[in-house]
User: Fold this.
Amino acid sequence: MLNIAIIGIGNIALLFDTNKKEKNTIASHIKAIYFHDEFTLKYVSDIDNRNLPQIQKFFPDVNFTQDYRTLVEKKDIDILVICTPTHTHYNILKDFKSSRNIQLFFMEKPLFHTAYEYKCIDNYFKDKIVVNYLRRFDLEIQKLKLKIQDKEFDHVQKIMIKYCKGIKNNGSHMIDMINFLFDKPEIISTNILAKTEGFSENDLTYDIQVIVKYDNQNIPIYFIGLNHNYYNTIEIELFFQTQIIKYINSKAQIQYFDIVNDKVYPTYKVLSNNPDIKYTSSTLMLDAYQHIFRIIKYNETNISSFKDEKYNIQFLNKILEGTI
Assistant:
C-alpha cells in the first residue's frame, strides 16, 4: 500500500466529486484514491479545515495539518499531491527537496506561475513530477494519438479548437492535447485575432491562428474563444483529407466521420451521417492514479512530465507574445 499526502483540499482535490457511492464518475483526487486498491490517503493539509469532515467520510483516519511544512519530515509519504493555487507550487516543492522518500509529485496544472520557476526548479524534481492534464490518461485519446502516429489518416489540413474561460485556464488543456496528439509540433507563427472575457483580467479568451510544423507540413490551428457566461465548451476538430474527427468534451465523445459521396449530388463529398463514436472515460482521475501506480510499480514512462508541461508553456508564451 502506497501512502499519499494532499496539500490543498478544495475543488479538484475533493469538491468536484464527493459522491462516495457513485463509481461510474470519478473526478476528484480523494475519490480516485479511495477507489484505487493500492493507495491510501495518509495526510491532508490546508489552511482551512472546513472540508475535512467530507474527507473523513472517505478516510476516517486521515491526518490533518494546517501547516504543510509539518509533512516535510514525514518518512511514510510515497506520493505528494499539490492542489494549491499555481503561484504557490514552486515554493511548496522547494520545501520538500529533502524528502527523498517521496517517489512522485502529482501536480495540478499549470505547473508553475513564472518562467523563472520553470528555469530554476531543482533537477531533483524534474523526473518526479506528473502534471494533471487528465485527457492524456484517457484510453480513447491515447488510441487516437497512435492512429495519427501510424498515419491511419491522410494528412491533416486544419485543426479547429473551441474553448472558453481563458487561454491559460481552459485553453491550456487544448494546447496540451495538441502537443500530446502531435508530439510537440514546432511552432512556426502565431497571430491573435480577437479577444473576449476570460477566466480573469490576466487570462483572457482569445481567437488565435497558430501555424505548426508536423510531419514536414505546415498545419493551421484555429482557437475560437467563446464567452463562458453563455456556455462552457471544449471541442477539437481535426480535418484530415479522408476523415474528420471531432472531440466533444461535453458529450465525452470522439466522433470519427468518414468522407462519402453525397446522395443527392454524388459528385460532392460530404461527412457520413453515422460517425463511429468512441466514448471517453468518466473516471479520468482514477485513470491518472492508475498511471501513477504503473510508473512506480512497473517503471512505465511518464506521459505527462515536466518536459511536456515546459513545452506547453513555451507554446502558450509564444501565443501571448502577440497579445492585443
Summary: The two ends are 51 Å apart (CA to CA). Residues 82 and 282 are 22 Å apart (CA to CA). The chain has a mean pLDDT of 95. The first helix runs from residue 11 to 15.
